[in-house]
Amino acid sequence: MTSDDVPGDAPGTDTDESRREFLKIAAAASAILALGGIASVMKAVIFPSIPSSTQLTFPRVKVASVDSLSIGIPVEFNYPLDNEPNYVIKLGTKADGGVGPDGDIVAFSDICQHLGCNWGYVAPGGSPRVNPSYKAPGPVGYCPCHGSIFDLSQSAKVIGGPSPLPLPQVQLEVDGSGDIYAIGMGPPSVFGHNTGSSNVNDDLQGGTLVSITSETSQT
Amino acid sequence: MTEKDGFSERVAGWLDSRLGLSHPLLRPVPQFALNPFYWLGALAVVAFVIQGVTGMIMMLYYIPSPTQAYSSTQYIFQSVSNGRFLETVHLYTAYAMIMLAFMHMMRGYFVSVQKNPREVMWVVGMLMGFVTLGFGFTGYLLPWTVVSYSATHVGVGMISALPQPISNLLNFLIVGSAGDAGELLRFFDLHVVILPAVLLVLLAVKMYMLEAHGVADPTSGASAEAKARTLPIFPDVTVYLLELSLLFGAGMLLISAFFPLNLPAEYSALTAGQSTPQPDWYFLWIYQVLKVSVFEGGGGLAAALSVVTLVFIVLLVLPFIDRGKTRELSRRPVYVTLGLIFVGEVLMLSYWGSVTPGATIPLEQAALVIGGTALLIALVSLAVYRALYSRVRGRLQTVPAARVSRTEVRSGLAFAVLVAVGAVAIGTLVNSVVGIVLSGFSTSSGELLAVSAGTLALDVLGTVYVIYRLDLRTGGIRRRVKAFEVGWKG
Asked: What is the phi/psi pair of residue B116, to 5°?
């Protein structure tokens, strides 16, 4: 643009100066607004506030029946979220927190407390496939990732390996007809849910709770 | 153009005049750069293009949902025409891309391309390297096999060891709150949309800077005249690059044809409990660091991740750490040795990680092996520096460094090997003696003792023999000893 076209807008004139000032202020204001918006979104992401009004409770879900379980054969079910595997196992000997006629049916989160791998069941005297030199002293859970070992007859106490915490135990209930229901989780919280916390309500956040229909059809 | 031109000349002429092919748009390339080592990054880009093409074909079939990811991958393997070949090419070219990026980085480091004025190019290149690793991490989950799912979840599980704000942000970005389905979709989106877009932008920025600064001169040996000889980007360099790319592409296709992939089993918690997941080879060195016993248990993971993060940060800001002006290899013994140690440790840890899946490494063992590797490489590197370059600055300037004779290089290498073997033998000897003292004699420790003592004896004999032969032939040892003495004193 030359001064011949629009004389009032010639460089250095008052109109030009004020127009520049206006543009600068507008740009700065939009930048501040944009940054503020981004900051508020980031704050919500980084420091989320979990509304206490939507307090969830553990669902009651059928996971197996006493008759369907045989000793030493784990059955997998998802609980409390629909992508979190657990095992229900009939150990054959009375166990802490065990249910059923012999008090030997227990269930634990299948997610190791060390780094979130899935552990596998090893019967007394048996060896995990990944470590044939290890002989289980009792019914144990053996994590193939780093060799954490959990004593399933003693509420999954850590008896070896790097896991800092025992496995969360699923609270079970048997009704009159022999159906086994999961009704809640014991501490600590499931791996990945505010890991290391003893607040089991953390288990209910961060996903979709299992629905009763999908579980009954699975067993 | 005249009437006598043939058809092909006329077509070429028409294309040239309309498309401006021979117009000198881009900076010409110096002739010395027509060497594959100058095009490692370009080959990584070629690998990226192959990834794009094969990936887009697979996207026609792949379904990113937990229930269908595995079955749709299986469909590509079994039912799509040449689907298995397609998957194999995609994976192997991804491996090649990571390998080329690593080689590109290390070559750049050793010849100091990151120095003034190319510091920002290095930083952008490192970011591209991180994006490349991100491709590997996100792509690993997609087939939903037992290893890929478990290994990815160990990686994701590490997020929980980070400080709360960072872990919240990462959880939001790559995990989400919709369970497996949401997470898989995020990984897929990152893999096929976001990371490629970021990589392309970074590539454009880097190419712009390459155009501004040109190819870095060789560190030494090129005369000003040789540096001035250039070739136009079209047709010479273009044809050269096409040849190189086709050779690389053909190589990838051949390897894929000869070593086709097998799809591992589908993920389920039951199968996962029976197999040890391992990351893919490019993350094995990190995996091995995390398995050192001191990093297991409460707070240890955060410490281990800090160590690994520190390595990446140092790599990122390297040009601002190594601020020496010279680029010549012979004048940078410390940084070259550090680079060799880095490469050596990465190779050693990766191999070690691959053979000890799931096993925790005792701290003493880790310190011995990691420290030993560093010490060994440092000693060998400094010995080679002494042997090759000591006379440059020493007082016995009989031969210029550039004309070190072949015999001397050979004997220098022989000595380096002998020193290395000797160091390992001494280390094993000490180790077995300590073992016997601490935990009593056993057959295996006795064997180790005998073998290491025997090796050491042979090594000493070999050294004596080499010294004898050398002196007999050239009298080089006497001269060398003199050079060393002067070097040490000076």
From this structure: -35, 125
Which three-class secondary structure state does DSSP give residue A90?
A: strand
- Work out the minimum CA distance from B152 to partner chain A, whole angstroms: 10
Interface contact A46, partner B, CB < 8 A: yes
- Give how far Cα A43 sits from Cα of A54, A136, B167, B438, Å: 21, 48, 13, 56
> Do residues A62 and A215 touch, judged by C-beta distance below 8 A?
yes
**Residues near A122 by Cβ (< 8 Å), separated by ≥ 6?**
A128, A136, A139, A140, A141, A142
Q: State whether residue A81 sits within 8 Å of chain B by CB.
A: yes
Contact of A207 with chain B, judged by CB distance below 8 Å, is answered with yes
At residue B397, does pLDDT exceed 50?
no
Residue B217 C-alpha, separation from nearest chain A C-alpha, in angstroms: 42
Q: Which of A208-217, B81-90, B195-204 has the lowest mean pLDDT?
A: A208-217
Q: What is the DSSP letter of B335?
A: H
Given an 8 Å threshold on Cβ–Cβ distance, is B178 in contact with A129?
no
How far apart are the CA of B358 and the nearest CA of chain A, in angstroms? 4
Alpha helices in B440-475 (DSSP H): 443-473
Chain B residues within an 8 Å CB radius of A195:
160
Q: Does B156 touch chain A (CB under 8 A)?
A: yes
Least confident of A99-113, B86-100, B325-339: B325-339
Residue B281's pLDDT is 94
pLDDT digits (tens, 9 = 90+) for A65-101: 999 999 999 999 999 888 889 999 999 999 999 999 9
User: ipTM for the complex?
Assistant: 0.72
Q: Which residues of A are less than 8 Å from B275 in CB distance?
A: 129-130, 144
Out of A48, A143, A196, name the one closest to residue B168 (CB).
A48
Q: How many CB atoms lie within 10 A of CB A129?
A: 14
Domains in chain B with CATH codes: 25-220+228-326 (1.20.810.10), 362-489 (no CATH)
pLDDT tens by residue, B359-392: 888 888 888 899 999 999 999 998 888 887 765 5
